[in-house]
Amino acid sequence: MANATADAPRRPGELLLDMHGAPRLSGRFDLEDPAGPRFAWSGTSIAARFQGTAITIRLRGSSDFFNVTLDGAALPVLAASPAVERYPLATGLADGEHEVVVVKRTEPLVSEAQLLGFELDPRGRLLPPPPAPARRIEFVGDSVTAGFGVLGRDETCPFSPDTEDFSLSFAALTAAALGAEPVAVAWSGRGACRNYADEPGEPMPVLYERTLPARAESRWDFGRWTPDVVVINLGTNDFSLGVSPGDHFPAAYSALVRRIHAAYDRARIVCCLGPMLTDPALAEARAGITRGVEDARAAGVERVDLLEFPPQSAANGFGCDGHPSAVTHRLLAAQLTGSLRQAMGW
Fold first, then answer.
1. Same domain, 217 and 326
2. Confidence at residue 243, expressed as pLDDT on a 0 to 100 scale
3. How confident is the model at residue 21 (pLDDT cuts 50, 70, 90)?
4. What is the per-residue pLDDT for 4?
5. Which of 139, 205, 141, 200 is nearest to 174 (CA)?
6. Residue 292: left (phi > 0), alpha (psi -120 to 50), or beta?
7. Cβ atoms of 285 and 122 closer than 8 Å
């Protein structure tokens, strides 16, 4: 891929992609393919500063939806298609400095994407990327963390990619309120030891090890990015449809907490419960997470807390398939934000 010098004019359509400067990649990106970085997790983002009058992004193999902002203002949602690679983001801009941010709002079950680069006008050039926030939060979860159905009209609509938006999830809202960079590792239907309705597929502790979750060979290097806080919100799928996972759940949950601590020994770990469960599954999940946390503490994990979200209320509406609405996500974010402000001194 071409990396043009600062002032040299380029041919229209020439790609720009500088892995050491611009753009800034936030989240888990696989850098093995020389054609460009691949990514799949919700909330992975691409931020670039450029000088010029137009900008196009090139993506390969994606069926995802992306939120795009230019100079802080929202642009139309980018709906990608595997049949398309060029996506003009803006034209006719003032010939000055601009900043564009492209955020994957859909989760890995929708698709995996590959960034091929940017196209600028013939005299356009990429500038040093915008700085990343100093604070960092990793979110490990399922459909709630991914923002499943948050744009749905009510609980009767089924899942569709256009109703999912990570930026409206409690995770993204918490990070924004705290001025932190969020990295999400979340996939709908996955649990700590059992997936929803025993559906096939690896549970989250297995996927947590991966850069590209659908590829067993794709291993994440935990030294590339170190969070200050890790927020876990798992358990809803483990206790789905009234089936108890028994002692498998606290054991798997404790193992995940200890694995996270091994990767990030200075991070505070927050274990969340709710908001979709109801009794008796709620009571059993609470007992299981509490036991998992206690076992992790006994194994030497000191900075681990338990935070229980209240059950979602019909008064606040529902998203697709009975998932939390945008209103509920805002309430969850407010609770988590307050807890982290106190715990972290933020």
1. yes
2. 86
3. very low
4. 30
5. 139
6. alpha
7. no
